[in-house]
Structure formats: structure tokens, C-alpha cells
Design brief:
By secondary structure, the chain is mostly helical. The protein has 4 helices and 2 strands, in the order H-E-H-H-E-H. A two-stranded parallel ribbon has the order 1-2. It is globular, with a radius of gyration of 16 Å. The mean pLDDT is 85. One of its GO terms (biological process) is Rho protein signal transduction. Keywords: GTP-binding, Magnesium, Metal-binding, Nucleotide-binding, Transducer. It comes from Kryptolebias marmoratus (Mangrove killifish). Pfam families: G-alpha.
Length: 121
Amino acid sequence: MEDRQTNRLSESLNIFETIINNRVFSNVSIILFLNKTDLLEDKVKQVSIKDYFPEFSGDPASLPDVKCFLVECFRKKRREQQLKPLYHHFTTAINTENIRLVFRDVKDTILHDNLKQLMLQ
């Protein structure tokens, strides 16, 4: 059930932390989709992220600064930083270019795993 008192981003970070730190996922690469980038762009123009995340130190009107901060928020939730890579993609429902980037990340993951296994043999 959705908590209407909790900021949706904070709620997403909490859910992500629970999932990313579950031992079932400790040996898998993660691709994080940060969807609705078009809405984020509008939101950055209307509201300061510092109102919700006072620790934000960038320019609250800068979309790249806000995106970088958001990725770091999610990245910091992972307790075991040196494990499998965490890929991220900012997406919109209508952007088909993202699927090409997803395939690239999947190939990177497979290559990374195969190289690691070869080094162990």
C-alpha cells in the first residue's frame, strides 16, 4: 500500500535498499531504470530538490546535477560496493534508444563475468 505521507523518491530508495542488499541478489548485476525523466525535468524547474533532500549540494535547477545526485542516492544504498556493477538508465516511456543501452550493459555484464571466470581457472 502506498504511503501518501512519504516522498515517492524516499520510498523508492527504501525499497531499492531492501532489494539490493538481499543476499539472493549479491552476485547479480543490477540495471536501475530511473523512469519518467520528462517529469523529473519539469519538477526540477518547479521545485527545489533541497526541500526534500537537504544534503543535496549541487545546483537544484540543474538537471544533470539532480540526476547525478539521484544515482548516488541509489548507489549508496548498496552495502557491498565492490560486488557486481550497478548500471543506471534515465528513461521515458517513449524513448526507444534506451533499449540499445540496456543491451550494451547486458553484454558488459556477460563479458565481465566470463573474464572473471577465466581469471579464476
